[in-house]
Amino acid sequence: MMNLSLTMSNAAYDRNPLSPGGLRRFVGICGFALAAVATALLSGCSEPGEVPVAEAEGVLSERVTTSPFGTLSDGRAVTAYTLRNAGGMEVVAIDYGAIITHVRVPDTAGNFGDVALGFDILDGYLSDPPYFGAIVGRYGNRIAAGRFTLDGVEYELATNNGRNHLHGGNVGFDKVLWDVEIIEPGQDEEGGPASALRMTYVSPDGEEGYPGTLTTRVTYTLSDDNALAIQYELTTDAPTPVNVTQHTYFNLAASGDVLGHELILSADHFTPVDATLIPTGAIAPVAGTPFDFTTAKPIGRDIDADDQQLVFGGGYDHNFVLNRDVVADAAGRALVLAAEVFDPGSGRVLEVLTTEPGVQFYSGNFLDGTITGKNGEPYESRSGFCLETQHYPDSPNQRSFPSTILRPGETYHSRTEFRFSIR
Asked: CB–CB of 375/409 below 8 Å?
């Protein structure tokens, strides 16, 4: 039986400001503070009639505000929730799909930019976009042929990605309305002030072919040290596979492509795939391949190399096996650094930490300019990247992979953090 209790620990990634990671965070926080001051001094320079998102219609606290975000075809209202911190960073999430629509952070010049791809209005999210900003589930990533066997029973799922099942099926967690609870007063894991909201969705037995009634709670917490934490808690009344993740597309430059972004992945191995992007079952070393991001390199350096795996994905669309200290992390509970991304042009840095065993690095290969996003900007190929923290794809059919089966009486706990800074 898998250990699904992934209680968060910081043992593997020290927040001590004198540690290398802590020093980077300290410098980044100081930069954010200076950027916030600059923004405040320039706040009177908005164009006439311009209404910042911060000026939402419903004021729940100084840190959380709400505004209408449209109406579904059945008449239900969709609401946007703006989380903000003392440094001026803002994260906007809507209750449809638990989607993160905006992430506003400053560059080294103090200019705030939106580093998340998406739409300014609800209609964009209703036209079947590629999971911009959404929580995906029950099972993020792919399940081969839309089938798996659990406790001797075969289950058949929707095949919505060629012959395979992807991100929970035709109507996954990204296409439902979630219940929302504002956590007030909000606090981060260290007891500091934070903006927080909890979203809950109850998936009924049989939805998209999955067994059991599954209750999923996702908590978004924005702290004053510019970390967006995502906490997952799931329970079920019958055995079922689960692999829930957050699918935001990032562009730290806030425009253009991401090929010049410099990426580090804490992964010495990855899971190769077949032509339909289902893992072969192998765990392969990245050394000597285009998949070696163990030291910083631009995303675009090797993306068009003559490599069959890159041909299959049209670029990077692969699960990376995160490095973990077997002794320190015997229970699989440590929050470890999965990835770091740096945009030289803006100076923005994104660190991704997680309790999960893997991360899917997707380089936006299937964006093709046909989707028009915020400010009327078409999203061209590789104009965003995803770092989806996860268990491995097709785990229900791959016994050598870490188990994703959740059983009654167990609680699935998982945590991921997106930490922003500048340098």
From this structure: no
Query: From CA 81, how far away is CA 218, in angstroms rounded?
Result: 14
Let me know: does 141 contact 157? Beta carbons within 8 Å.
Answer: no
Two structure tokens written together for 23: 């020093």
- Helices of type H across 85-202: 122-126
Of 102, 165, 167, 247, the catalytic one is 247
Query: Is the pLDDT reported for residue 328 higher than 90?
Result: no
Q: What six digits make up the tokens of 264?
A: 């580090």
**pLDDT tens across 387-416, in order?**
999 999 999 999 999 999 999 999 999 999
CA dihedral defined by 229, 89, 101, 112, rounded to 10 degrees? -140
| Closest among 398, 409, 252, 412 to 339, alpha carbons compared | 252
Active site residue 417: no
Per the omega criterion (within 30 degrees of 0), is the bond before 138 cis?
yes
Task: Check 207, 340, 388, 417 and give the catalytic one.
Answer: 388
Q: How far apart are CA 256 and CA 373, in angstroms?
A: 13
Q: How far apart are CA 307 and CA 321, in angstroms?
A: 19
How are beta strands 262-265 and 297-298 bridged, if at all? Answer: antiparallel
Give yes or no: 388 in active site. Answer: yes
pLDDT in tens, 185-239: 555 566 667 789 999 999 999 999 999 999 999 999 999 999 999 999 999 999 9
**Residues making up the chain, counted from first to last:** 423
How many Cβ atoms from other residues are within 10 Å of residue 360's Cβ?
Answer: 22
Separation of alpha carbons 69 and 349, rounded Å: 29
Q: What are the structure tokens assigned to 346, written together?
A: 């803006």
Cα 419 from Cα 22, distance rounded (Å): 12
CA dihedral 10→250→279→321, nearest 10 degrees, is -20
SS3 353: strand
CA distances in angstroms from 365 to 67, 147, 362, 384, 386, listed in the order given: 33, 26, 7, 9, 11
Half-sphere exposure of 261 (CA within 13 A, CB side): 29
Tell me the C-alpha distance between 147 and 140, whole Å. 15
Cβ–Cβ < 8 Å for 100, 135 = no
CB 122 within 8 A of CB 78: yes
